[in-house]
Amino acid sequence: AQKITQTQPGMFVQEKEAVTLDCTYDTSDPSYGLFWYKQPSSGEMIFLIYQGSYDQQNATEGRYSLNFQKARKSANLVISASQLGDSAMYFCAMREGRISGGGADGLTFGKGTHLIIQP
Amino acid sequence: ETGVTQTPRHLVMGMTNKKSLKCEQHLGHNAMYWYKQSAKKPLELMFVYSLEERVENNSVPSRFSPECPNSSHLFLHLHTLQPEDSALYLCASSLSRGGRAGANVLTFGAGSRLTVL
User: Rounded CA gap, A107 and A37, in Å?
Assistant: First the structure.
């Protein structure tokens, strides 16, 4: 079974509109972290935002916010006032367990959503 | 130079060739990772090194051989590859301990685009 599910393969959005990218996850571990990355056509994965499973508030970073609904195992990324430069692939990822101790654990990624911002 | 640097950016090789991908980080991180990104598939974690020791090897074929001589450098040695190995190979680094609630964000390089003929 997939641990990270991104149901939107592609999205077209008008510039300046808000965008919500869906992500659901599957884990039985009470400790986990959720990440969103952006991958432009250049290939580099750029970290956007992080949410810990014990964080009480939804994470925000500038125009990015994470709509974290723990009971639904949902971690949607919201981009406010979209810009042409936001066009890219967006990946949701998760690290399970050992949150308090850190650890060199790799992330498990979803298949991604290809976002295209139209002028 | 800062961040994570990968070379070469593009590589074309025959099935009988031997080549290596290189990754270098100048972030003071002590964990490094190799990921494979194929079309229409999620990123696949291949190897994890923490403090220069391999801590994870996700059933990767032996034709891929990683090497981590120090915490700043990571190599992926390639030999007798198959056409299905054509993909974008991404290197990443992170702190292996600490960080906010264990966030330990992975910082990625731009990738090496490999084509096997």
Answer: 11
A34: left (phi over 0), alpha (psi -120 to 50) or beta: beta
Looking at every residue in chain B, the average pLDDT score rounds to: 88
Residue of A2, A46, A50 with shortest CB distance to B103: A50
Chain B residues in contact with A31 (beta carbon < 8 A) = 102
Q: By 3-state DSSP, what share of chain B in percent is helix, strand and coil, each rounded to 5?
A: 5, 55, 40
Does residue A93 register a pLDDT over 50? yes
Q: B106, B107, B112, B113: which to substitute to probe chain A, counting the most A Cβ within 10 Å?
A: B106
The torsion of the CA quartet A39, A88, A67, A46, rounded to 10 degrees, works out to 20
Q: Over the stretch A33-87, which tens digit does the pLDDT of each residue have?
A: 999 999 999 888 999 999 999 998 999 999 999 999 999 999 999 999 999 999 9
* From B43, B98, B110, residue closest to A42, measured CB to CB: B110
On chain B, the residues whose CB falls within 8 A of the CB of A33 are 101-103
